[in-house]
Every structure is written in structure tokens, then in C-alpha cells.
Amino acid sequence: MINKISRRFFLSSLLLIPSLIIGTEVITSEDVLVIGAIPDQNPEHLNRLYKMLSNELEKSLNIRVKYLPVTSYPAAVSAFRTGNLDLVWFGGLTGVQARIQTPGSKVIAQRDIDIRFRSVFIANTKSKIPVLQNQNDLKKLKGKRFTFGSESSTSGRLMPQYFLQEAGIKTTDFKGARPGFSGSHDATIALVQSGSYEAGALNKQVWQSNIKRGRVNKIKVKVIWETPTYADYHWLAQGSLDQRFGSGFTKRLQETLLGMNQYSKNQKQILEMFGAKRFISANNNQYTNIERIGRQLGKIR
Amino acid sequence: MKLIKFPPPILCLIPAITLIPVLGQIFSEIHVGGLEVLGEFFYAAVHPSFNPLVLQSSFQGLQVTVATALLSWSISISIGLFLGFISSSVFWKCFCAQEWQSTAIKNSLAIPRSIHELIWGLLLLQLFGTSPLVAIIAICIPYSCLVAKVIGNQLDSLDQKPLIALRQGGGGTFSSIITTLLPPLIPKIKSYGGYRLECALRGATLLGVFGMGGIGTEMQLTLQSLEFREMWTSIWMLGGVMLALETMLNYLRREQNTKKKIEKFTAQFIGILALSIGIALLWLQRIDINLFSGFSFHPIILPTFEELTNAIYELEWATLISQTILITVLASGIAIGVPVIGLMMFPSKTSVSLQRISWAFLRLIPPPLSLLLLLLCTNPSLSVAALTLGLHHLGVMGRLLKEGISDQINHNYLAIYSLGTGRRLAWLYGCLSPQSRSYLAYAAYRADVILRETVVVGIVGGVGLGWQLQESLSSYAWAEVALVTTAYTTVTLVGEYISDNGRKYWMSPQASKHSSQLI
User: A267: distance to nearest CA of chain B, Å?
Assistant: First the structure.
């Protein structure tokens, strides 16, 4: 009995395979704009945000838009290189990495806050690290347990490491001869607040939003230094969009992003979720400094 | 050099010694600074998020995970069984009276096996784009090779006397193998195969790399943002599926245990595999995942000889490798020894079921999460990384051990126990002893898996080859990536050589005679 049934299962399943292959509709990437983002927010937030954004872009550009939730920094860069993503919300470093690997791609927009972005250095209050007076004071972090965020993060690793280096601190100067990599800005706060790491560096925007939401215990953790400004997150578009969607498409795409405002309910919500008042125009040249630092620290080869 | 020959059941206990230095260091640096966050985490366990959007996205993720797990499981079991047979020395001895082919195949399988599926995913993504098909292939490569190793080793550790007898009596090669080796292998295939499905369910964080979502992705993102309530929604959902799966597998295993005819089993087995593939493919199509979308070839520039030599000098190999080995050894010791000690010390029914629940829980919590939780109350060190991996895999080893013990007939235990021996000793020699060989075989490749997984614990002060691999990958330094993966493979091969010889040394017939004398 079982024998017969299993044989039938087996045969029918074998039949299924080719029919599925033939039956699958071949969707050419030409007719869909695939957008992606560096994942640094919670899934509920991301899903809501990108659904709304896709709808908004579909409406104003009259094309189909799909959101591909790629969850790791290197994967997003590679997916952009292989042409699986058309428009990506990148961080400073990952955007430069992706642009170098993908000839023709260009920066089209950034948030109003990205043009002068900052990182903050935070410390556990028990660590006895004082508030630093200037960049040179970063030397006081020598011999402390220190953590960065994710290894590809601009505000959680690249720029903090650069400012440390400028102050004469190598990553081997921390306790254990290596810094930690907490994996995310939120994890950096939690770990420094617990005291497991005595100090850490992260995105200033995330720090502020955590304070606003009451997730920071100010008795246990404090800001000790704020970095100078640098250009960070941006929208990076493939260079081939005009060929695929018609001439002038990239321009229209940019205009749609820049035109988002507080008057439309949807657009207002999108901007709020991005933590911005509006998007502003941006270009490749703003990131030459990031590229130089990336090369200096070995994150761009 | 002469080493003391311990009987196999004692060998299962010894690795637990590593718990002492690990716990020693962790307790010496313990603190209460992270209690409030830990509190939030445990509070969230009983108050998971019921936000419809969260539920919807977790449920969608669960479907993606289950469907891809079914597909990659059935593919890797089929390929793994085949590779397992052709990599066992019994097989080659029967066919051409030589076994060098078996060694050659075994060693070449160590290369794909020693690299984590996440790394396979990132490498293949470079070449073929974000196609779901590539994700499935990336999962199947190390999984098939792992199944192959397990099946190969189990085949070789089976009692070969019946096979020799049949062959001497003139039995055909193929039919002798099937008649004598398949029946004792069936319970192992059932137990291990079922367990692999659970692994495939848990291990699918890779899907996020390909933009496919999945429950692992949900967990990863909620972990990054420390949204514990949303995280628990996903954990409980996955836990529910794992529980259902385990109940079903237990039922399947109990039903007509071992008495089933070979052909019936084979037909059922093939049926299950084919059915899983069919269901998985239909399911994926239903949830709008097109296996072949986005598949295209993108060549990458291979590193030059000069770049490779430069990379050799740039990395601190001694530190990287020794840290990796240290984490692996400590974690494996915990994973192998602790379940044995637990079951021996607390053999009562309630405490065994409590242990089973805690094992399931340890398997359910992904290592990056438990690492963060541990780090909230102790300072970063190698021991934390080792304990994290050790705890996770302890859940796995405990499960395999308990299943092995429940599958065997316990007359040895009853005999020893009724002679007046203490319950614990009776368990050690009655229950554990017959299982210890296969348990130690499982232990050897569990160490393999742990070695691969050192990739995910780099958070602790950027340690080991695993962290270096992630760093090199995110810097697109292909020369370094090539060298680090080579280092992984080398460590795996050396480890394998040591464990194989260790097994030969400690479990030669003399040793087994020794243990049977003890009985």
C-alpha cells in the first residue's frame, strides 16, 4: 500500500518539476524597478517604509517597483554590481564600494541630514572615561574595551576608526588588542550601557532616536565626543536606467525623490521614517573623502 | 607515544572538562550592567508583538523558510546519501578491495564542507546574482557534504562481520551491502535525516542575503534593532514549527521501529523526498518566489599571484588560526560532554524531559542572539564565543544522544541495574556504552560544524578566521578571502585526520573488548 502510494508520489513529483520550470513566467528585469536598502532598521519599519515608497514611486513614475530586502551590507553591494538592484539606499562606504564596482552608476539624492552627518563616541559612566575636550583626547580610550558597530558601517566603524587613527590610536591599542564589532548601532548602545564594552562609537541619528524613545539609561551611558561632519547615506542608481525605462528617467526619478514634501500624507510619513525633512540633490563628488578614507583603512581595494 | 586508553563511554564524558576554564573566565568577569536589557528580553518572551504587520511579515518569513528548507533538505539528503556511500571505505573494499578512493573522496568533500553556507552564498552571489536558486545551491553544498560524511562514517563504524560472512559465502557485492549494511543504517538515516530538516529550518538566515526574506532574516533584523517583542513573535513561530516537526518525526520513528522491510522503507523514503521537493516548489511559486529569477553570470577578477603573496604577509595567521582552534575545541568540549553528564547525573523522567526542553530552546536561539545576551552580563572574551557556540550545539548533541538511546533495546541497562549497580553507573555502561561509538562519530563532525560557525561569533573583539573572513569579504579583498577559506579547509582536514586516528586508536577492538569486559 505504502509502496504504491510512495511510487505515485514519486512519479507525480517528478512530473511536477519540468512543468514548474516551463510554467514559470519569465519576468524580465527590464519592466520592474528593483529597489533595495542597507538594512539597519527593524523589519516592521522596513516593510512599511519600502511598501509606501514603492507605491509612491509607482504612482509618480508609472512603472512597476519591487523591493528586494537584502539583509547584509556586502550582499547589497554585490547585488547592485550584478544588476539585481536598480536603486539602493546605501551608507557612505557601501555606496562608494558599490559605485566603484558598478561603472556608470551615480549618486542621485541624500537626506538633508546626510550632507553633514556625525558619529558619537559613547562611554559607560563607570569606565571613568571623561567627556573629551577635543579629538586628541581620543587617546584616553587606549587600553579600554571598545566596540564599533557593523564592519561595513560608515558612521559606526569607518569614520570613527579614521578619527581615532588621526588622534594616534590604532585598533590594536584597545584592550585585548582588538575592537569589538557589535553588529549594529543599537547593539553598541546596549553593550556599552551594560559595561561589557567601556566605550563605543555609533551613528548620531540612531543615538538621538534611542534617547527620544527612552531606550537609553543616562545614568549608565553618556556621549563623550561628537565627530566632525562627513557625507553619509545616499540613493545610488544604476547608470543604465535611462536605456531601460526611457531617456530622462533617472532625472524624473531624482525629481520624484526630491519633490517629496510634508504636504502629502504619504510622503510625509515616508520622510518621517527616513528621519529626514526632505531629500536633497547629491552627486558622486561628495564622497571622494569617504573613498580616500576607505582606501586608507583597507575597506576599499 | 602511548596514550591511556579510555573506554568509549568515558571518552564521551571527558570533553566536558573544557567547561571549567570557560565558566571560570566568564564568572570572573560577570556583571549586572545588562540586567535591564536582559529583563526586557525575557519580558518580551511572554509579550511578543501581535501587531498585524509584524505577524504578517513573520508568517510570510516562516513560509519562505519552511519551503526553502524542505527543498534544500531533500536535495542535500539525496546527494549526501549518494556521496556518503561512495566515500565509505566499506563500499570500496567490497568493490575493488582497496580503500584509497574513499580517502580521496572524503578529503575532497572536506573543502566544500569547511566553508559556512553564508560564505558560499556571498561567493556564489558574486558570480550568479541574487537568484533564489543560487541560495538553495549555497545551502546544499555544505549540507550535502556533511550528510555524506555522517553516512560514510556511520557505514564504516557498523559491524562488518555479517557483510564479511555473506561475501565469504559468495554473496553478490551490491546485494550483500544492501542486506547487511542498510538495515542497521535505517534508524540512523531516520534520526539524522529528521534532524537535518530541523537544521535546514534553523540555518536559513542565508536567505536574507538573497533578498528572499525568511524567518531568519526577521530574527536578524529584530536583533540588530533590539526589537525584542517583534523578535519573539518570530522565535515562537519558528519554535512552533520545530515542535510540530519533532512530534511528527518522533511518531514516524516509533511507528514500526526497525521492523520495517528494506524495500518498504526505501520506497517511503524516496516518496518523502520527492514529495518534499514537489511541495516546496509549488509553495515557493505560491509565495511569489521565482527560483530562476535574477540568475545571470558575472565574472569576477581572480586575485593575482602577487596579491596572494601580499595577503600572506598581511594577516596574522598564527593568532587567527590559534584563536579559531581554541574556540572550536572549547565549544566542542561543552557540546559533546555536557549532555552526557546531564543525562547521567539527572536520569529521572522529569529532569530528562526538562533537559530535552532546554536543548530545544538552545537550538532555537540563533548564536548571534545568545552571544549578545551573554555579552550583556559578562565582558568580551574567547570564552564567551566558545560558550555561545557550545550551548547551541549542546542542544543538537543532546538530541542526537537521547534519540540514539531511546532507539536501542535497553536490556543491558536493566541487567546491570538489577545486579545492584547504581543507577548512574548502570546508565553509563548500559545505555551510553553501546551508543558511545556513534555518539563520538557525531561529535567529530559536530566539531566540524562548530569550526565553520566561528564565522558568526566575530562580534567578540573581532576574533579568529571567521571574523577575518567577514572583514575581507566586506572589503572585497578576494586574495584574503581565498587564503582564509584555504586556512579553514586546512584546519578542517587536520582536525579530521586527528579525529580519525583518535578513533582508530581508542576504539580498536582491544578497547571495545575492554569496555565489554567492564560490562
Answer: 20
| Subunit contact B264:A13, Cβ cutoff 8 A | no
A128 and A273 part of one domain: no
Domain boundary among A200, A226, A252: A226
Whether residue A108 is found in the same domain as residue A175:
no
pLDDT in tens, B100-124: 888 889 888 988 988 888 889 999 9
Rounded Cα gap, residues B415 and B128, in angstroms:
60
Q: Do A279 and A130 fall within a single domain?
A: no
**C-alpha cell read off for B452:** 565553520
Whether B290 sits inside 8 A of A181 (CB atoms) is no
pTM of this prediction?
0.89
Average predicted confidence (pLDDT) for chain B: 87
- Contact criterion met (CB below 8 Å) for A275 and A205: yes
Q: How far is CA A97 from the centre of its chain?
A: 12
Which residue range is the domain that position A147 belongs to? 119-226
Note whether A186 contacts B: Cβ–Cβ < 8 A. yes
Dist CA B402 CA B390 (whole Å): 18
Interface residue B224 vs chain A (CB under 8 A): yes
Do A175 and A260 fall into the same domain?
Answer: no
Beta carbons of B380 and A176 less than 8 Å apart? yes
Interface check A196 vs B, CB under 8 A: yes
Q: What is the mean pLDDT of residues B348-360?
A: 92
Q: What is the DSSP string of B402-432?
A: HHHHHHS-THHHHHHHHTT--HHHHIIIIII
On average, the pLDDT of chain A sits at 89
Assess contact for A180 and B382: CB atoms under 8 A: no
Tell me the HSE value of A226 on the side-chain side, using a 13 A CA sphere.
8
CA nearest to B463, candidates B455, B472, B453: B455
Closest-CA distance, B473 to chain A, in angstroms, reads: 7
Given A2, A17, A184, which is nearest B224 (Cβ)? A184
User: Within a domain: residue A138?
Assistant: yes
B147: left (phi over 0), alpha (psi -120 to 50) or beta: alpha
CB contact, 8 Å: B90 with chain A?
Answer: no
Same-domain check for residues A242 and A214:
no
Of residues B316 and A290, more confidence is placed in A290
Q: A113 to chain B, minimum CA–CA distance in Å?
A: 21
Burial of B161 (0-12, 13-18, 19+ CB in 10 A): exposed
Q: Mean of the pLDDT values across residues A268-291?
A: 94
| Shared domain check, A201 and A64 | no
What are residue B296's phi and psi, to 5 degrees?
Answer: -160, 160
Do A42 and A76 fall within a single domain? yes
User: How many domains does one find in chain A?
Assistant: 2
Contact in structure between B97 and B104 (CB atoms under 8 Å): no
> A199 forms bridges with which residues in the sheet?
A123, A146
Flag whether residue A161 sits within 8 Å of chain B, measured between CB atoms: no
What CATH number has the domain bearing residue A214?
3.40.190.10
Residue type, B159: D
Domain membership flag for residue A12? no
Predicted complex: ipTM over 0.95: no
* Gap between the Cα atoms of A203 and A119, Å rounded: 5
Q: What is the largest CA-CA distance in chain A?
A: 82
Confidence at residue B448, expressed as pLDDT on a 0 to 100 scale: 85
pLDDT in tens, B247-263: 888 887 776 555 567 77
Q: Is A212 exposed, middle or buried (0-12, 13-18, 19+ CB in 10 A)?
A: exposed
pLDDT at position A41, please?
67
Please list, in sequence order, all residues whose beta carbon lies within 8 angstroms of the beta carbon of residue B333, skipping any fewer than 6 positions away.
B15, B16, B17, B18, B19, B390
User: Cβ–Cβ of A179/B223 closer than 8 Å?
Assistant: no
| Kind and range of the H or E run holding A198 | none
Q: Are residues A241 and A98 in the same domain?
A: yes
